[in-house]
Amino acid sequence: MIERSTPYPKLQSFRQQSVSSVLGRFWFFLLLVGGAGCGPLSLDSRELARAGGGDEGPRVLPVFQDDSAFELLEEPVPGDWRAGPGRSERPQSFLRYVAEDPVRSSEERNRIVLQLLGDFEKSDQALLESIREFVACSFSCRVDLAESLPLPQSNRRSRLWNRGVFQKSWVQHHTKTIMHEVLEPNLPEDAICCLGITQEDLYPDPQWEYVFGQAYLHRRVGVYSLARYFGKFWMMSETQSTRRRAHRRAMKVIGHEVGHMFSLAHCAYYRCIMNGSNSLEESDRLPLWFCPVCASKLVWNRGVDPRERYLGLERFFRDQGFEFEADWFARRVSDFKGPN
Ligand SMILES: [Zn+2]
Ligand SMILES: [Zn+2]
Predict the structure, then answer these.
(1) Does residue 257 carry a catalytic annotation?
(2) Which of 145, 273, 282, 288 is the most buried (most CB within 10 A)?
(3) Ligand with an atom nearest the CA of residue 71
(4) Which pTM does this prediction carry?
(5) How far is the CA of 271 from the centre of ligand 2 (A)?
């Protein structure tokens, strides 16, 4: 199932099914060119990542200078985001981010709204509350779940799979119609940004198979689907382990989309929640945290204490029973030196 990639000059699109590529090395080429402009060609890849694509001046906030806990991105392989739809994306360094006048809070706008769309069951409440808290800890911000609004009737499309014993028909909803017809007109005055959450499947453009989510970098709205993480969509039974995996995926994608709404572009430096992803498999390789470059953007944007932020995330993951992430954040907390 090969799809044509579609450029979105202002819109960060996210996650479709596999895309063929002949430009698997292009991202690395871009990074090398960027690094060569501001230092010796002998910079190794870790130094290039710190250099954040070649801008002058400090590349990350001083508290994130030690990047030894973070993995550098490897060269993309065919099928990866950076070998497909993301191959021409320009790396967004910390300084470029600051210069781009990103979306920020103000006295009047001081909360993130998660706008439910369509039907939800009472049994969905625990997951919704968990992802709400994850966003609150990640972005150091008040986050509210807003009572559900109906999905728009226009630009829906029917889909059909017929693969032997696997037959399924369902409806997909158009991301931009949702954002323009529902989310923008209902954007609360005191919201920094608003992300729609739906259990329905989404598509961003007629040529695309689907997306998990999509968000504008500067229009303060985005939308995200929970549909494909759960066994029900694939007509498979759920186990505790698959529910856990779905929960992790749901947090990963909501963190990514809210990051876009704070004007963070896809990360081209480290393995990071802001990496573009072209499939569930690629998404599963990403962590639930922001790398030194992206964390610098967030901490600068929100004006928060990075240690307190890490502490909050450690507590959240410990409470939720995600020990791997809790331990990772605990190590970051202990890395901070000084009176704190
Ligand atoms: Zn994205
Ligand atoms: Zn990053």
Answers:
(1) yes
(2) 273
(3) 2
(4) 0.83
(5) 7
Question: For residue 35, how many other CB atoms are within 10 A of its CB?
Answer: 22
* Distant-in-sequence, close-in-space partners of 106: CB < 8 Å, separation ≥ 6: none
Task: Tell me the CA end-to-end span of the chain in Å, nearest whole number.
Answer: 53
Return d(Cα 39, Cα 34) in angstroms, integer.
10
What range defines the domain where residue 85 resides? 7-100+265-304
Q: How far apart are CA 328 and CA 76, in angstroms?
A: 25
Question: From the CA of 212, which ligand is nearest?
Answer: 1
pLDDT tens sequence across 121-171? 998 999 999 999 999 999 999 999 999 999 999 999 999 988 777 788 999
What residues pack around ion ligand 2 (CB closer than 5 A)? 267, 272, 274, 291, 293-294
Nearest residue to 75 via CA among 216, 268, 285 = 268
In a domain, residue 26? The reply is yes
Tokens standing for 201? 């499947």
Which ligand is nearest the CA of 213, by number? Answer: 1
Name the domain boundary from 246, 262, 278. 262
Q: What is the CATH number of the domain that holds 111?
A: 3.40.390.10
The tally of domains found in the chain comes to 2
